[in-house]
Structure prediction request, 453 residues.
Amino acid sequence: MSKEIIPEIRSNYDFYNQLLKERKSVFESVISIESIPVVHSSYQGPMLLIVNVKKNDSNFFQFKLKCRDICPTPFFRFDSDGDTHRNFIAGLTLPEQQIPTPHFHYYNQDGLNIAYKTPPLLEEDQKKALQDISLCLAHFFQESNINTELENFCEVKILPQLLPLVISVNDPHANIIFP
Amino acid sequence: MKTLQDIFSNIPFAFSSLWKYKERGNTLEIITPYATTSSKFVSVFLSLKNGEFIISDGGWIDERIYDNTFDLEDDCFSKILDHYVNSFDIRQTNGLGNKTYFYKKTNIIQTVPSLVLDLSVFISNIISLAEIEFNDKEEKESVTRFGKNANNYLKTFIDSEKLDLGGYLGESKTIKFNAIIKQTSTKLILINYITGSNLSHFSNSISKANFIFELAEKSKYKHNISSKISIIDNMSIGYKPDRLSGFLGHFFENTNSKEVKWTDKEKLKELVSL
Prediction:
């Protein structure tokens, strides 16, 4: 399980907590699919919010917070869809280890990547509402203590120049020929 | 105190609780208890098409959904993949954007669980093995860096519809080039990049390009090849012209490909003028 452990986080866990838990701000009201700067209340270095959306499925998105001063990979993440994570922690029962998407990822004090679900992600109606990328971004902001300094949360604009329509093809076998 | 038999009975119970599904249109994503060394549980995808049950990886391996690599250029990984594909009798097909799907199919409903087992073990092993770095890290980084630079340069003056980066010659995925330029639908320019982080890797890169050009000349697409170009990374540490002159001389004579040194890359614009 070596890949999922980030030693830089394990050895700088106070700094990690400071990055994640202290208040941060973004000043843009519309976010395209790109990286935008995040301003941390006490840490002065560069931090980025990255929004990724799958090309042919607008319900498949990720939000990531990245700060190169802690580690090269994102230090906090939300996955709306995709693979099921295994929390490989001694003492957890097998069913407790399995965390399907949607889920958040953070790192514990051993630098181990942990997936978890917030209460809204466990509740069917709220989970459905959070398929809306802008609403979900608001939830991500709450979870990672990001303030927009605006009355409303940010709106996410998907592929503004290329596709006016929101598309969602989440059936992986659609239009595939299996000879 | 619980007996060992009681403990045993809890094992299949715990395992069985891991089986879950998600509806995805007409396909079911089945989350399995099979795990990878990168802390993922494997999903397989089940659908019924024309009376046949299809069980696939959903294109997730090629799409790197498991945060995995999928480097078919890596000879070791490629051999391992072949071994598992052959052992489990896995089929492959291509979807949108040439994405590879690994799958099995049956028209016997009772054999579906057996196929789910095959696909699950296959995915679990491939994703886990993809974590191993088989190649020299420095070499891999050097090849990736040069590939990226050369790709970016070609993109600056060749229309994206005519440029196939990492494209295959023909429909069967056997002869791969760093770039293929489609002058017309039947006239192609084939490009190989030659680089290496040391002398040995550089000479291997020459041999590989030589072999690929030879294969292209023996293929049924021979008459579609309008020219062949080799871009030589003469800025790399492995480029030792005095030691490589014999190799390079033989290579250009044998393949009849045009040489473009990276420091003279402007020359490419003339050679590929469309």
